[in-house]
Structures are given as structure tokens and as C-alpha cells.
Amino acid sequence: MDNDDAALIERCRAGDLTAFEPLVQKYRQRVYRLAYNVLRDPEEAWDVSQDAFIRAYQALSSFRGESAFYTWLFRIVMNVARDRARQHAARGRAFGTERVAEEDWDAVLATNLKGAFLMTKYAARGMIKRRWGRVINITSVVGLNGNKGQSNYSASKAGIIGFTKSVAKELASRNVLVNAVAPGFVETELTQGISPEAKKYFLDNIPLGRLGQGSDIASAVLFLASDFASYITGQVLVVDGGMVM
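Now predict its structure.
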């Protein structure tokens, strides 16, 4: 690691906030270019850059110095930028179908449906060779029931269900199981911005009376990946607190 960077990092760890500013100045342009290459939006790239530096400062205690500071910072920037890109694609613009721009339609399907296709296409090769594997796609209850104002998002998630069932039939003879998890309304950074009225509406329609947590979805994925699910393929496991039953 660069000796100057190391000295500044140690000062930051000792509580000297001013020592982080030279690191920001040194890497600001490179961080911005990285974010811009992912988002292709100057304002979004600038916002992600600022967010990445804040996260880097907050996480300095976890930096061990095995690699260059910039390499570590690069991973933070890419994670933040990709999260932001996924959020924008998943948001799906709450318009009537006649008002959905073609580029918005393409962006949502490219992220959700094509993304699942590409991941499966390349990950399945090793599974086929080993004659063992698990593919678990993440769809949504709106892929089953639809959702007003989200025709592009709903179509992409319904497509994942059809894709999952088709690939399950293709790979079953190789002992590769392919299933999907369909979350309902889950508390995430993306859903925290909804109005209290909308949140109440969802809660009123969930028999279990609470929003889902990330751990609820992770547990479903873990089950499908385990030997407990060794005779299950081509299925959609709905995890929604009873919302669509």
C-alpha cells in the first residue's frame, strides 16, 4: 500500500477526520469515473461517489492493508453503484403501460430477466459437468398476480417464473435443481421511501401482519439450496406472509 495512504489512514483511525480529505482529493476523479461507467448519469455518479467515500470512512476499521487502499475503495464504489443501478431498474416507474418509456421497459427486463438468464447460462456449465447443482432465481409475487403501474417489472418477474420452469426441465437429468423464490413486501432500502398510507395498505393485506425481512428470503433460499429440497425442482416458493394466498 502507498505509504502516504497508510499514514493518512492511521491518522483517520486515530480520530483525525481531516486526514481523510487528502484521500478524497486524490481519488475523487477515479471514483467518479468508476461510478459513471456503471450508471452513465453524471449526477447519479457524483452522488454515488460521495456515498462511497462516506462508507469507506465509516468502514476504515475493517481495512487491513493487504491490498492497496484504492483497490479496497474500488470494491466499495462498485457495490454502491451496482446497488443504485439495480434500484433504478427495479423501481419500474409507477405509470400506466401507455406511459412507460421503451427504454424503461428494456432496462427493467434487461436487469431482471436477462440478468437471470446470463447468470444461469454461465453458472450452469460447471453444475452440468459435476452433475450436481442448485439454481435459485428471485422473482416476486407481482410475477404471479401483477401490479398496477408496474407492467414492466411484473412482466420481468413473470418471465423469471417461466424461465425457471423451462430450465428445470432442461437440467433435471443432470441433477441440477432449478427453483425460484417469490418475495412479497420486504423491508429494504428501496421500500423504505413509501408513504405511511401505502405501508398501511400492505400491512392490512398481509395475514401475518408484518413486512418481510431479508432473513425471511434468505432462509427460503437456504432451504432450496439444501439437501432438504433434493426432490424439488421447477417450483416457486412464495414468501409473502400470506399476501397472495
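The first helix runs from residue 3 to 13.
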